[in-house]
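Work package 3, deliverable 3.1, input record:
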Amino acid sequence: MTELYRGVWVVAYRELLTFVSDRTRIAASLAFPILFLVIFGAGFGGIVGQMAGGLDLLTFMYPGIVAQAVLITSLFAGVSVVSDRESGFLREILVAPLSRTGIVLGKAIGAATVAMLQVLMLLVLAPIIGVRLDAGMVLQLVPIVLVLSFVLAGIGILIASFAPTQQGFQLFMQMLVFPMIFLAGVFFPVDSVPVWMQFLSKINPATYGVDSIRHVFLGSGPAGAGLGVSLLGHTMTLVEEVVLIGVLGVVFLGAAAWRFRRQE
Amino acid sequence: MIEVHDLRRTWGDIAAVDGVTFEVTEGEVFGFLGPNGAGKTTTINMLCTLLRPSAGTATVNGFGIVEQRSDVRRSIGLVFQQTTLDDALSAEQNLRFHAYAYGVPADARETRLRELLTLVELWDRRSDRVRTFSGGMKRRLEIARGLLHHPRVLFLDEPTLGLDPQTRRRIWEYLGDLRAREGLTIFMTTHYMDEAEQCDRIAVIDRGEIVALDTPARLKGAVGGDVVTINTPDREAAATELRARFGLEPVIADDAISFQVQGGEAFLPDFVRSFGRPIYAIGLRRPTLDDVFVHLTGREIRDAGSENGSATPVGGRSR
């Protein structure tokens, strides 16, 4: 048990240490969402005008952009596994008296903490864009960001456990990340696209993350106005979405831990 | 301290380690000598619990390498062939990570950290990122890190691979120091002969099997005297003559013939006078571990790796 606990905190601590000592990464991780917000908001805002429920596009997009930051950072947990393998540091971790499950959880918790820090930084933008923000909303965001981050970190680490090289992995991740962001309903409501695309959106765990963060910022109004996500004809509530993400998180992290335990 | 019995590791039909048996006693410096691909790293990986053996048993510090992996890991220090440091962190941060991971108590940690960093002469560089370190500095840092949690056994896999001779000498000084201070048992692999000379005992490994195990002096003694190397035009014919007239056992290697004789200095003048063929060059020296390897396997250690096609490219997977 101590090996599980120690594995978790040691690995998470180092992920955090690596993040805070890399200023380029901090800057890049913030620049990306802001770029999206400015370019897409300005580019499409004029064309789209007002959306259902009296929302403008920027307000609709903002929660999605927050979710997108979580998505990229959390999948990065996988990148860090692959780069650790290439630098050799993974061996130092694997040969230490730490449980493999603890190591995987530590990576995920490290990624979730970094994602949380980024979300907090992005929240500064809310008043500028005109999105209402209060302390209660921040408190609601914390658990959502954490569970969303766990499931995505689980996916990232699981993929990383199959990837032999960093180049191959990054190529694959790029092929995965962009469709995941676009299909998650960051830029348009999921229920208003063709059926084949809806199918892809609804098997994308990030979709529920985006929608639950939107629930927090915009209330259940947009969902009622047809901008939410429905699954098998049922419009998802905030709690249902968080539970769904949580279950997926357990599945993916479990699979990643299983892969790690099998490796020698 | 280490007991290994008939340990094997196979990948499909290929036996990387084909049943090795040996013991390492406490405080000993034990070397595994052999060419690339002989099975040195595979053996070390099994002893360090990173690789499950296909068959056989082994204990390290009394703990079974399969059943008590955690206990084994806690009682050993490791320095791998390739560096395993986090370049983005400082020397100190790398050591602290290690201390946390091995559960070194907080009150002992900082003293130990300072002591080891001072020993390997990196105390002044402790807050610099490892990225800025030279190969020799990284290796010294890894040795310090491997000892941080007071292991009983230190495993070194090709500890000075790719380092210049001066750095290699320094690293041996540190190891000698540490051994005297902490009563460490050291298990190392190498294919450098001068490095193998530093060991108390050496196991010569070739193609997954131990072909000899003894002290360097006794191994060299077994070669059978001084080594004479001659360069002559028709090597086959010369070898035949050496066998027939002098009762020697010549080995044809590279571009010369070598053989062993007792009392080389006295032998040479007579030999040169009575040998019926031209001699371009002649050399006499005391036997080295290189000769031991040639004597045991009929091949030179440098050639052996590439000959069986398993020489490892830089950064590649080695076993």
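Residues 57-87 of chain A form the longest helix (31 residues).
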